[in-house]
Amino acid sequence: MAILTFREALGQAMDEEMARDPDVFLMGEEVAQYDGAYKVSKGLLQKYGPKRVIDSPISEAGFAGLGIGAAMVGLKPIIEMMTWNFGIQALDQIINHAAKMHYMSGGQFTVPIVFRGPNGAAHMLGSQHSQNLDPILTHIPGLKVISVATPADGKGLLKAAIRDPNPVIFLESEMIYGMKGEVPDDPDFILPIGVGERKRTGSDVTIITWGKILHTAMEACAVLAKEGIEVDLIDPRTLVPLDEALLFESVRKTHRVVIVEENWPFSSVGSHISDRIQSECFDDMDAPVARVCQEPVPVPYAEHLEERALPSVARIVEAVKRVCYRS
Amino acid sequence: MKKKQSHSPDQLLSFYKEMLTYRRFEERVNLAYTQQKFSGFCHLHIGQEAVCVGVQAALQADDYVIAGYRSHTLAIAKGIPAREVFAELFGKVTGCSRGKGGSMHMFSKTHRFLGGHGIVGGQAPLAVGVGFAIQYRGESNVIVCYLGDAAMNQGQVFEAMNMAATWKLPVLFLVENNRYGMGTDIRRTTSVDQLSKRALAFDMANSEIDGMNVITVHNHVNEIVTNMRKHPAPYLLEVMTYRYKGHSVSDPGAYRTKEEVLEYQKQDPLLQLAAVLKDQKLATEKELIEWDETIREEVKEAERFADESPIPDLSELWKHVLVEE
Q1: For B139-159, what is the mean pLDDT?
Q2: Closest by alpha carbon to A70, among A25, A21, A18, A15?
Q3: All structural domains of chain A with their residue ranges
Q4: Among partner residues A66, A67, A97, which is closest to B122 by beta-carbon distance?
Q5: Distance from first CA to last CA of chain A, Å, rounded?
Q6: Which partner for B241 in A72, B133, B158, B211 could form a disulfide, CB atoms 3.0-4.6 Å apart?
Q7: What structural domains does chain B harbor?
Q8: Could you say which DSSP state residue A206 is in?
Q9: H-run or E-run covering A213
Q10: Where are the beta strands (DSSP E) in chain A?
Q11: Strand pairing class (B235-240; B171-177)
């Protein structure tokens, strides 16, 4: 085990996969000479050269489409979005082309591509740089969607994403690039796509969450433990396909669930998970499903307004107490 | 581009028969549509046959083609059997996309036909990706990216051309300028309507040619592609052509005059080449009529295949969403 930052873990994943497979290349804005806007691709240009680590123009739709075309004829592109807010420019290519090519060609063409980059609010970046795309991207059949919160999960699942024959969306966060954690050294360390993980064991209530807000939920768990409430904390890690078995198993144990997500509440990932739980675990429930989401407003700039817009320890604690009838 | 390549009698006859096949194919498709044998959108290529025939004759089997939604005949030209295109239109499992693509989404991995795409201009970045892969692997083949005139106003096409030109990728952007983006005269929406000139912004080679003459198309594309194999770089070729039918079969064409259509039909690619064949004594009027009868039968046979083919099993609904490992 090595202690790596989240960005180092992702960089190592790409490095190992590029060493393993000459068809893997990395393209995006500032990924080469600048070492990546968030330094995730640090050192890759020196190691693999400009043929395989390519600075793109600021043309998200264009280079997303370039990746898809290259994937259709057998290359395995990693396309970095400097942020998924810019990735919105590429949604035509991702939704209309990457997600549908295999299906509408009757299974002839595959698109083995990874689109990766930071997702969601960071800190005081303003409305246009603070959005989560997981509800939009998980809505589209034909895409796999991964959202990770720890260095080990980042490395294991990014490697799996690069090896996957499907288009995979890989959601990161600016706020956790510097976060450290233990990461296995084995170059064949892979985490299976579609398998979640119990991040904390408890029997009183289930929290389901993913991405960087997992760390806020962990803090809430510590607060709640002091008050005698033990949380079963479930991170699906992959949103599509979703590890429903793990979610249901936890809910059937605790009979109470809070879904915490950095998405707006309407048509979110959490609303879907909530639907699945009420549909599959109805008789096991002792309280309605509770959800902690972003406030349904564009994420504001002013620090205190932004803080209030996002899920917080206080709001998570409040929701958990509500489903435990302890408020 | 002035130098004319001499064409053998066999080549000229083959051009004629291919163009006639595509004309009769699309007419038959039109008939089947009006008979309500299939539904959805249906964009016919009638009038524009010289383009795909001239282009295809300049390509090798390992070259790639990608296109927009007006692509039944482009798919056949690239090697997909006509009956599989017909079956695709009828939503049959024997169709080239297993009945899951339809009129706008013909595909063949074997024939390196990368679709049939329905988002105007969306195929341009994909084409650049294929050009990137060709360069990445050090191959000498090329990709032809068919675009309509109206696609030239999509932002993605600018992005694609810029990348292709910056990285010197072997992509032939081929604009079939049939003068109308659906029902809108291109001049009403485009500041510089000489579309080939867009290439100047990217320092990209470009030209404009008569797309109603198959010999002209073949000569030009052959020279462009031959050069591109040796010196990879993108090229923007504007091919002036005209569609006789509406944008889709449901379009009555109220935005243009009957006289305009008749004027273009005087330059019909089949009439032009028939005159050459007769002039050079390569075919008699009687032979032209006989070929037409044979081709009509072949096209009917393609339709019969489509008619008699099975529809996809219901299980196909859930297949191919993701690659099944």
Answers
A1: 97
A2: A25
A3: 2-183, 197-323
A4: A97
A5: 42
A6: B211
A7: 9-246+266-306 (3.40.50.970)
A8: E
A9: helix A213-226
A10: 2-5, 24-28, 53-55, 76-80, 114-118, 144-147, 168-172, 180-183, 197-200, 205-209, 231-235, 238-240, 257-260, 290-292
A11: parallel
- Cα-flanking dihedrals φ and ψ of residue B7, to 5°? -110, 140
Tokens standing for residue A222: 């510590």
Distance CA B318, CA B325 (A): 14
- Residue written as tokens 């960089």? A11
Taking CB atoms and an 8 Å cutoff, what residues of chain A touch B128?
62, 65-66, 69
Complex prediction ipTM: 0.96
List per-block mean pLDDT (blocks of 10 residues) for chain A, which spans 327 residues.
97 98 98 96 98 98 98 98 97 98 98 98 95 97 98 98 98 97 94 98 98 98 98 98 98 98 97 98 98 98 97 98 93
Which residues, in sequence order, are bridge partners of residue A182?
Answer: A3
In angstroms, the CA A137 to CA B179 distance is: 37
Place of tokens 């699309």: B26
Instruction: Check pLDDT > 50 for residue B1.
Output: no
Nearest to A65 among B99, B133, B156 (CB): B156
Burial class of A9 by CB neighbour count within 10 A (0 to 12, 13 to 18, 19+): buried
- Kindly determine whether residue A66 and residue B125, on different chains, have CB atoms separated by under 8 Å: yes
**Nearest CA of chain A to the CA of B89: how many Å?**
13
Residues of B at the A interface, defined by Cβ within 8 angstroms: 64, 66, 95-101, 105, 107-109, 114-115, 117-119, 122, 124-133, 136, 155-156, 159-160, 162-163, 166, 319-323, 325
Give the CA dihedral B161, B163, B165, B166, nearest 10 degrees: 150
Please report which helix (H) or strand (E) contains residue B115, including its range: strand B113-116
Q: How far apart are CA A64 and CA A137, in angstroms?
A: 15
Burial class (CB in 10 A: 0-12, 13-18, 19+), B180: buried
| CATH fit for domain A197-323, picks 3.30.70.120, 3.10.20.90, 3.90.1720.10, 3.40.50.920 | 3.40.50.920
B213 burial (CB, 10 Å; 0-12 / 13-18 / 19+) is: middle
Query: Contacts for B200-205 with beta carbons within 8 Å, 24 or more apart?
Result: B201/B158, B201/B161, B202/B161, B202/B162, B202/B164, B202/B165, B202/B166, B202/B234, B203/B165, B204/B161, B204/B164, B204/B165, B204/B233, B204/B234, B204/B235, B204/B236, B205/B233, B205/B234, B205/B235, B205/B236
Q: Give the CATH H-level superfamily of domain A2-183.
A: Thiamin diphosphate (ThDP)-binding fold, Pyr/PP domains (3.40.50.970)
Strands A257-260 and A205-209: what pairing? parallel
**Candidates B98, B105, B163; nearest CB to A66:** B163
Q: Point out the catalytic residue in the list A8, A17, A29, A129.
A: A129
The residue count of chain B comes to: 325
- Strand stretches in B120-202, DSSP E: 143-148, 171-177, 180-181, 184-185
